[in-house]
Amino acid sequence: MGDTRPAAREAAPRRTGGGRRGAVVAALMLSMALAALDSTVVSTAVPQIVGDLGGFSVFSWLFSGYLLAVTVTLPVYGKLSDTFGRKPVLVVGAALFLLGSLLCALAWNMAALIAFRVVQGLGGGALQGTVQTLAADLYPLKERPKIQSKLSTVWAVSAVAGPGLGGVLAAYADWRWIFLINLPIGVVALWLIVRHLHEPQRETQRQTQRESQRESGTGVSARARVDWAGALAVFACGGVLLTALVQGGVAWPWWSGPSLGLFGAGLALAGLVVVVERRAAEPIIPGWVWRRRTIAAVNLALGALGLLMVAPSVFLPTYAQSVLGLGPVAAGFVLSVWTLSWPVSAALSQHVYRRIGFRDTALLGIGAAALILLAFPFLPYPGAAWQPTLLMLVLGAALGLFQLPLIVGVQSTVGWSERGTTTASVLFCRQTGQTIGASVFGAVANGVLATRLGGAGDLDSVTRALDAGTAPDSVRHAVASAVHAVYLGAAGAAALAFLVLLCVAPRRFPVLAEQDRSELPTADEQPEGRAEQRG
Question: Which of 171, 204, 269, 524 is the residue whose CA sits 20 to 30 A from 318?
């Protein structure tokens, strides 16, 4: 393995046996499916939900509220999983998600539904971060692409099947079943986790800490301390800033009082986070997350990935319907093809990074992605549907080659006690990048439209006019120009990720050496002690 250097053996929680591990993997995939299906299933049922509960003016918070809750809780859950173990965090997260699902199904108005979606998001943050962390715990480095490709496949299937499932439930049953269907899936996942996931290593580490403290005379108790003040500050800061980004330019103008007030409050809270975390004994966001070159580079690169993903996922369906004249189903297919090539490329990426290393494999993937995104504005007008479809197919392959080596690589540079925090920081940056991308690229698209149409309308109003057949062909040209500008911005984000990896990330990740699978402890063997951290 190109990136592996001699180092102390990485400590890991006691692995389960083959059959038990298979049951845990099934639970992880079911848990990931809950989080992955959520937004895609709900999106197709919005008309029925609004028709039943009302609240059309605020229905966007069904998605924004959930996204905010997931994003701001990721760092908190990551630290908690390093402190108390993965199992309790995953169990609490799944229980919160199921409680939120049940409450959503019982919602009596839009305000209640939005509040219960936030409860779902509080659980969803635990599901996303802890599942990814456990995937690295259960498998040694050489086998991690297997579980990561399975999780990628769950996301791909959810992206394709979610809208159809939501539409069927809303049309032939009731929109409340969109949330009720989570309950049996979640109960099975919870049962598998409780029954088959065991983490005795944490208790062993605590006993070692107690013995060390007794010997050094620093105290008898080694109780884990939780930085609740830091958690509250991170939650408040993230919530305020993300609300400003999500609602800016939508609910109010960017330079209005609400936007400026929220950004000002967010910056003040960010300063408070820095002060609180510097004083905390066990900070929620420890400084080493940004001091270590490898982790900092991966955080920034995947933040850029979240940014560039907005271009196809948000604007391509509009382009396909308004410019190419496709129906909603065909437009969805143009987008969904990248979810087919992404997991396949991710699964095969191990054959590349074993030869040239994690960083260079990611550079290859994001460099190709930048060229593909740059090619989109050069498509002929109006063009044929196969042209953007082919670009999306290749883009998915490029991004699979980019993302998975970085996640596997960065998880392999830390030991068990830091892996939850590291994984959460990566996912947090990617989610934040998507939020920023939606705001920035939305402003770019509307700006191009305003220039091309003499200051008349935004992307939403223009596409509605096109759907109604009341707009001239010049408006289609304007929409094409707006989406082309967004893709150029996405290519710029890909170039930024390339530069970050090239200039900041070390050429060889400081990977901790691991046992071979034949040497890993079974459920009945004693685990080894903690490894010394490197990098």
Answer: 171
Encoded tokens for 465:
């006019």
Q: Is 511 helix (H, G, I), strand (E, B) or coil?
A: strand
Closest CA to 324 of 391, 377, 394, 380: 380
Distance CA 320, CA 342 (A): 21
Please enumerate in sequence order all residues whose Cβ is within 8 A of that of 506, keeping only pairs 6 or more positions apart, or say none. Answer: 293, 294, 359
| DSSP letters for 1-39 | -TTB---PPPP-PPPPPHHHHHHHHHHHHHHHHHHHHHH
- Strand partners of residue 252: 248
Q: Using one digit for the tens of pLDDT, what is the confidence trace for 109-119?
A: 888 998 999 99
Whether 272 contacts 294, CB under 8 Å: no
* Cα–Cα distance list, 66 to 185, 230, 273 (Å): 20, 22, 23
Q: pLDDT for 40-78, tens place per residue?
A: 777 777 778 888 888 766 777 888 888 888 888 888 898
Task: List the one residue out of 466, 133, 516, 176 whose CA is nearest residue 331.
Answer: 466
Tell me the pTM.
0.82
Q: What does the angle CA 109 – CA 37 – CA 160 come to, to the nearest 5 degrees?
A: 125
* CB distance 410 to 302 below 8 Å: no
Retrieve residue 86's tokens: 């993965």
Distances (CA, A) of 152 to 131, 228, 298, 355: 12, 33, 18, 23
d(CA 401, CA 396): 9
